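Researcher: Following up on the earlier apo prediction. This time include the ligand. It's pyridoxal-5'-phosphate, with the SMILES given after the sequence.
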Amino acid sequence: MVDWDGPLTEAFERATTYLAGLPERPVGPRATAAELRKALGGELPTGPSEPRDVIAHLAKGVEDGLLPSGSGRFFGFVFGGATPASLAADWLTTTWDQNAGLYAASPAAAVVEEITADWLVELFGLPRGTSVGFVTGAQMANFTGLAAARHEVLRRAGWDVERDGLIGAPPIRVLAGAERHDTIDRALRFLGLGTNSIVPIAVDDQGRMRADALHQALQDDGPQIVCAQAGNVNTGAFDLVKTICDLAHDKGAWVHVDGAFGLWAAVSPTLRGLVDGIDRADSWATDAHKTLNVPYDSGLVLCAHHEPLRAAMSIRAAYLIQDETGERDSLDYNPEFSRRARGIPVYAGIRALGRSGIAEIVDRCHAMARRFAETLAANGVAVLNDVVLNQVLVRFTNDELTRRVVRAVQDEGTCWMSGTTWQGKAAMRISVSNWTTDESDIDRSAAAVLQCLNQLQRA
Ligand SMILES: *Cc1c(COP(=O)(O)O)cnc(C)c1O
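Model: Understood. Below is the ligand-bound prediction.
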């Protein structure tokens, strides 16, 4: 008899202890790389070990090197934590170990993802029949959406890119805001379009693409893709997607929206105006592992037109059993072949929260971000952006002091955030993306930031 209980019980106990400790744990890694190597390294094991001991040793070894991003006082990057239902479903997804590439390989995974896809389309208010692929993150969602775009704009120009590649193809112009996320550039590299295909469009002081500049840059014909953004990674600002779609479609361009965290504003009745007209775009990239607080790795690509997505992604092989009855073979939607059934934790996350619960996360992250910004502003700290969603950029007098405050806050441990550069100036970037963050987290964190600032100013 295989002993599953031993290692799984060890994992369960370690997991619940970790989760229970999050609210009071210092928010930052405590171990150096050298200490981690010492705790975890050593010679290649020459033979087997007891699985339960392996799990205990692993958990102990990594403990001090974990960045507790599930904490309510973690404001780094744009991360998000994990809700109980999505985390538990993620464990089961691993247990069931389904290969979600084909209907035949897991009818359950295919149907769960089909249902989840419909729910997502309804949540975001996108056109019925929009196709959804469950990818690893917004990086791959941008890649996949842009692959569909590449197919379609070249097909309209009489070119079959899947068959003939890009050598000799009509050039594609990719019009994207100067403050686009770097994963757009990386996706274009992966797609063989290269970063030189980008026509950078001027942005305003919040990082929003300027519609007049886009209007000027669009050409009357030829393959064009416009990359809009719903939620700038620094300011949280939203491009005016409605206007952008009208201008772009008028010239036959495809509109792809990077809404890694911002697309979720669509779920909030009070913030929905930020994404006005978003349903007019052709493809969207977003994350479930940010605002929805599903464990990594969980991104979503949505495409209003199924055929270009299928043409860009699908694969036929003699040994594959592809479904003839119209059931969902996810490799028609995804760049992966074999893959984890990552729609299952998304399903559980949505089911547990419901529409109102998701809207509540979006609204609370917004309210908490505003509270953070207002508290710091009331103490003389410069807030550099309009806090329209969950992102706050603050600056302390100059670049040098700003960087030192970021480092001091990270070392102090009450909360954790990272630095950035916004329009040439160093800034501290606060992202409220965790479903547990409440008023006391904000108040404690703001107090810690102000205390670090005071100490540095006195020194
Ligand atoms: C986080 C983010 C991405 C990249 O998403 P991953 O999930 O890390 O792949 C892309 N665009 C924006 C605007 C983001 O915030």
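Model: The chain has a mean pLDDT of 97.
Researcher: Noted. I'll compare it with the apo version next.
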